[in-house]
Amino acid sequence: MSGPLAGRRALVTGASRGIGRAVAAALAGAGAEVALVARGVAPLEEAAAAMGGVAVPGDVAEARGLAELVRRVTERLGGPPDIVVHAAGAFALQRVVESDVARLDAMLAANLRGPFLLTRAVLPELLERGRGDVVFIGSVAGRRAFPENGAYSATKFGVRGLHEVLAEELRGSGVRSTLIEPAATDTPLWDPVDPDAHPHLPSRAAMLRPEAVAEAVLWALTRPPEVRVDTLAIERA
User: Fold this and answer.
1) Which of 91, 136, 152, 190 is catalytic?
2) Does residue 89 carry a catalytic annotation?
3) Which CATH number does the domain housing residue 186 bear?
4) Is residue 3 part of a domain?
5) Per-residue confidence in pLDDT tens, the chain, 237 aa
6) Domain with 97 in it
7) Domains: count for the chain
8) Which end of the chain is more exposed for a tag (fewer CB within 10 A), N or C?
């Protein structure tokens, strides 16, 4: 395959829909071999077939099965990934006083525990080779406060902290950590909320498209090896 990412292998989580699917398609279009990871088997296989990637069902927040998941990704790609994009996520709106603990736990698992565990699992291989990229999909809610975002913001502020520590630990190693922080993006995560009916939320027509976020990821990944894009905040113009 040809393209700026030819010869590279990528693992993208949350790849069956939304930002994850758009990122996987962008990386595949740029020549990377892409493993799409998500929990839902049927939509994951459909997405992989549409872009010529490989589907590897799994839950990155489950520590016990993570080594096996990474092994299957490595097997399907013909080698270990040197790009990891953490795009899996969960979202809900609730005031702190009304917050559901189970929903908080679900968001912590998807948005923070999963990226932490998967990064820890793939990092030794990346460091041994002295090159690679870890990309976190954060959120504007990881740097700004919005009403009803208590649980979600807690996870995304956590992702920002994880990225900033990792960037310091990776300095000089040849492995790069990048945080992409998009504003509201029109994905299926909004379906239960119906932002068009909410007076304090942007309409879906006014949101970013997932493909715009994917282009930002691709841009960061295709900088020269000696250049690290630390944090990239993107908004609708």
Assistant:
1) 152
2) no
3) 3.40.50.720
4) no
5) 689 999 999 999 999 999 999 999 999 999 999 999 999 999 999 999 999 999 999 999 999 999 999 999 999 999 999 999 999 999 999 999 999 999 999 999 999 999 999 999 999 999 999 999 999 999 999 999 999 999 999 999 999 999 999 999 999 999 999 999 999 999 999 999 899 988 889 999 999 999 999 999 999 999 999 999 999 999 999
6) 9-234
7) 1
8) C
